[in-house]
Design brief:
GO terms for molecular function: protein serine/threonine kinase activator activity. InterPro entries: ARM-like, ARM-type_fold, Mo25. Belongs to the Mo25 family. By secondary structure, this protein is an all-alpha fold. It has a domain at 1-97. The chain has 18 helices and two strands. It has helices at 3-10, 13-19, 26-39, 49-56, 59-66, 74-84, 88-96, 99-106, 112-127, 130-139, 141-153, 158-172, 178-184, 188-198, 203-218, 224-232, 234-242, 251-265, and strands at residues 43-44, 47-48. 31% of the residues are buried.
């Protein structure tokens, strides 16, 4: 790393690039965004110097996140933010901050580009740093999944629902989150939402919902209320899965489906 790069941190240039972004014209904003992104990868003696700097200047993250509320700055600040959360300590700060709750609203902003950018950042926060994510989800399970279900999975917006069910599958199928997954599949409310998503007209939502639903079916310690719901809907589910296909042949999907059908068919009232 050059002395110029080191100087950028010692002279607080990174702070100035972020704070002064509103004063720059569009082309210069793009350049500033690229500079901030590049700085996140600069190393001194194998340490990421930007990580140390951001830990000492964590208020810069507050500025970047709040950028989603400004149409002119949102995409620039969003791109900077995703680069900054490559650092685990920075991602941990964002996950544990009050800002995390705001993402459920940012993802549904009327501006499609900004909403998509916020969704990309949200996904990055919840998938990149496995141990930090597992700890966050365990400690914040109730409010997080309450918001996730009501604002995203049950959103009236098709794209929001599709992105959310895909992300939910990515989270629950990750081994790091096995404790969270076990808790999730014991909830009748969660099962109800998943069964509604299985009935969607959109094939892509149906398929993603299936990947989460199979976790409920595979659970060998199903609570009585889960068994009751599955029994009540047994014939409907078996009919649904009889015609359930992916657009391209997928051996793994067919094997999973066969296992789910076997589990559902074997359910008997006690």
């Amino acid at each position: 790393m050059s002395s110029i790069d080191t100087g950028i941190f010692s002279e607080n240039t990174l702070r100035l690039l972020i704070i002064c972004l509103p004063k720059l014209n569009l082309e210069t904003r793009k350049d500033a965004t690229q500079v901030v992104a590049n700085l996140q990868r600069q190393q001194v003696q194998s340490r990421l110097i930007a990580c140390d700097y951001l830990e000492k200047n964590i208020d810069l993250l507050d500025i970047l996140i709040s950028g989603y509320e400004n149409n002119d700055l949102a995409l620039h600040y969003g791109a900077m933010l995703r680069e900054c959360i490559r650092h685990q300590s920075v991602a941990k700060y964002v996950l544990e901050s009050e800002h995390m709750k705001k993402f459920f609203d940012y993802i549904q902003l009327p501006n499609f580009d900004i909403a998509s950018d916020a969704a990309a950042t949200f996904k990055e926060l919840l998938t990149r740093h496995k141990s930090t994510v597992a700890e966050f989800l365990s400690n914040n399970y109730d409010w997080f999944f309450s918001e996730f279900n009501s604002k995203l999975l049950e959103s009236t917006n098709y794209i929001t629902r599709r992105q959310a069910i895909k992300l939910l599958g990515d989270i629950l199928l990750d081994r790091s989150n096995s404790a969270v997954m076990t808790r999730y599949v014991c909830s009748r409310d969660n099962l109800r939402i998943l069964m509604n998503l299985l009935r969607e007209s959109s094939k892509s939502i149906q398929i993603e919902a299936f990947h989460v639903f199979k976790l409920f079916a595979a659970n060998q310690n199903k609570p009585p209320d889960i068994v009751s719901i599955l029994l009540t809907n047994k014939s409907k589910l078996l009919r649904l899965f009889a015609d359930f296909k992916t657009e391209k042949e997928d051996e793994q999907f067919e094997a999973d489906k066969a296992q789910v059908v076997k589990e559902i068919a074997a359910l008997e009232p006690k």
